[in-house]
Amino acid sequence: MQLVFASNNKNKIKEIQQLLPETIQILSLEEIGCHEEIPETADTIEGNAILKANYVTTNYGYDCFADDTGLEVEALNGAPGVDSAHYAGEQRSSEDNMNKLLQALSSKTNKNAQFKTVIALNLNNTQTLFTGIAKGQITSEKTGNQGFGYDPIFKLEGHSKTFAELSMEEKSIISHRGKATKQLINFLK
């Protein structure tokens, strides 16, 4: 079986391919000739995952899955949420995003947050959603140099390290993306 993963992030593609049975081959957007930027105009994380999966299925005719992830902070009414990647502006700088978030939380005592990943799978003319959530807190300073995005300021509930202090293997077992991906894999098996 071939499935398109609506991503050109080679690390993400490799990570998921390693978790899937050998009978399922993942194709990237580049491999199917999709070089345009797929619009992510929905106002929810679920909506963006669905938009990306539907774009590939509609325009290229492939069974496909797509993911979207956001960081939701309680004290900020769920922000940055769907805007996590460009919270501090269109330049999509992780450093700027973290700095803006730390500034926004500097006077708040509630640091509770959660990462949420939604995967939308279009398979055999049916759409299925998988959701992974990792609850934790925003730290007051950046720690660690692994991972990406908000990882240096997010500490998972019950853990003493930020996501950026964990190896990719450790993080993938307990993370929001890891949880959603496991659901996808179990469904495909």
Broad CATH class: Alpha Beta
Assess the beta-strand content as a share of residues: 15-25%
Straight-line N-to-C gap: 11 Å
Largest sheet: 7 strands, mixed
Q: From the structure provided, what is the oligomeric state, counting identical versus distinct chains?
A: single chain
* Radius of gyration, in angstroms, nearest whole number: 17 Å
Helix percentage: 25-40%
* Total helical segments: 5
- How do the SSEs run, as a string of H and E? EHEHEEHEEEHH
* Integer average pLDDT: 93
CATH topology: Maf protein
The secondary structure category is alpha/beta
CATH architecture: Alpha-Beta Complex
Instruction: Tell me the number of structural domains.
Output: 1
| Number of strand segments | 7
Query: How would you sum up the global shape?
Result: globular
Q: Low-confidence stretches at least 5 residues in length (pLDDT < 50)?
A: none
Please tell me about this protein's structure.
It is a single chain. The chain is of the alpha/beta class and 189 residues long. It has one domain (2-188): Maf protein (Alpha-Beta Complex), CATH 3.90.950. Helices cover 31% and strands 25% of the residues. It contains 5 helices and 7 strands, in the order βαβαββαβββαα. Strands 1, 2, 3, 4, 5, 6 and 7 form a 7-stranded mixed β-sheet that branches. Helix 4 (168-174) packs across helix 5 (176-188). The longest helix has 16 residues, at 45-60. It is globular and about 50 Å long. The N and C termini lie close together (11 Å).
